[in-house]
Design goal:
Blueprint (H helix, E strand, L loop, with lengths): L2 E8 L2 E7 L5 E5 L4 E8 L5 E3 L20 E2 L5 E3 L2 E4 L3 E4 L8 E3 L12 E6 L3 E10 L10 E10 L3 E10 L3 E2 L3 E2 L2 E2 L12 E4 L1 E7 L5 E7 L11 E2 H5 L4 H6 L3 E6 L7 E4 L6 E6 L3 E5 L19 E6 L12 E2 L5 E10 L1
Antiparallel strand pairs: 1-2, 2-3, 3-4, 4-5, 6-16, 7-10, 8-9, 11-12, 12-13, 13-14, 14-28, 15-27, 17-26, 18-21, 18-23, 19-20, 19-22, 22-25, 23-24, 24-28, 25-26
Family: Belongs to the aldose epimerase family.
Catalytic activity: alpha-maltose = beta-maltose
EC number: 5.1.3.21
Length: 340
């Protein structure tokens, strides 16, 4: 049965439930416009969560974790926190990663904010839309940025995610979701999951996780997922890029003419997720930092895989590709379709 509901669990914080006619359930938080859970029924009638989730909704604000959060204004990293706007004015964004890099929008990124929201439903679909005004000079970004994040669940077991934004002053904008998928269910790893990426090229990373050089071909190396292969084959590689990052953390440049962008399969291939996106790249990150400590104490290394749709990260100071002007609309769309 199509269903939308909300439960308040803390001041100004709500857990929202979307359910379709197949029994698939999506749980969202207005804190960070966060995708909290994707629950699908199993053969014995139980529900299994296909993404990494914390124990309770209130845990998400206890310690920054990025699980399912809407990340911005810029997902990823900005080298030395420097943006040279229009070759005239230089902005120094907060250095919140090892005092050298601006990461995931800064310490007060969108994933740490309470969004306003509205719910809608019809006979075949239901949705939650989240709204937030990120005020000028939060984390030193110029311009007031009006943001709308929408999740829509239909009866084909597809969850749609879109972000739109507009600004009153030239600023930076590259917003995405940081959900971690684990198709084998909780307390597993993704090493034996199968991954297929519609990409011929990827970007290498320096020691600060910033891309450098021109895109490299995936041909004949561990980054070649043009045909479905286990994630483990990349993680076990002796490639120095994998060794430096302790796994995958790399942007893949998508072949725009072909869809879908990504297919992810459980280790027995009984479950799958198909990702489609309007974004030109996806950063594939295999949870290399999880170590069973802190708020993510239930997660060990490689517990999930994040597939972060975005404009490719860059080491350039002008950051023209992610510059948003007052007369422009930022719009990105991603969908995740499940078979189980």
């Amino acid at each position: 049965m199509i269903k939308t509901s909300k439960v308040q669990y803390s001041k100004n914080q709500y857990e929202i439930t979307l359910q379709n006619n197949n029994g698939m359930i999506v749980k969202l938080l207005n804190y960070g416009a966060t995708l909290e859970k994707i629950l699908v029924p199993t053969e014995n009638g139980e529900l299994v969560d296909l993404i990494l989730s914390l124990d309770k909704p209130e845990d998400y604000s206890k310690e920054r974790n990025f699980l399912g959060g809407t990340i911005g204004r810029v997902i990823g990293r900005i080298k030395s926190g420097i943006w040279q706007k229009n070759s005239s004015k230089t902005y120094h964004l907060e250095l919140n990663e090892n005092n050298i890099t601006h990461s995931h929008g800064g310490t007060k990124g969108l994933d740490t904010r309470n969004f306003k929201f509205e719910l809608k439903q019809s006979a075949t679909k239901c949705s939650a839309s989240f709204y937030y005004l990120d005020k000028a000079f939060t984390n030193n970004y110029p311009g007031n940025l009006n943001i709308k994040v929408k999740y829509l669940l239909n009866d084909q077991d597809t969850l749609f995610y879109s972000v739109s934004a507009f600004t009153d002053e030239t600023t930076l904008c590259n917003i995405g979701n940081h959900v971690y998928f684990c198709l084998d269910g909780p307390k597993t790893t993704v090493e034996n999951n199968f991954l297929k990426i519609n990409a011929d090229k990827y970007l290498q990373l320096d020691k600060n996780h910033i891309p450098f050089g021109k895109p490299k071909k995936v041909l004949n190396n561990c980054f070649d997922f043009r045909k479905a292969n286990t994630i483990k084959q990349a993680l076990d590689s002796s490639d120095y890029q994998i060794k430096n990052e302790n796994g995958l953390n790399h942007p893949f440049i998508l072949n725009q003419k072909l869809a879908p962008a990504i297919k992810l399969y459980s280790s027995n291939k009984k479950r799958s997720m198909t990702l489609r996106t309007t974004a030109p790249s996806i950063v594939v990150y295999t949870g290399n930092h999880f170590n069973c400590t802190g708020i993510t104490h239930n997660f060990k290394k490689y517990a999930g895989i994040a597939l972060e749709t975005q404009i490719p990260p860059s080491a350039e100071n002008h950051l023209q590709s992610i510059t948003l002007e007052p007369n422009e609309l930022y719009l990105t769309k991603t969908s995740w379709s499940f078979k189980y």
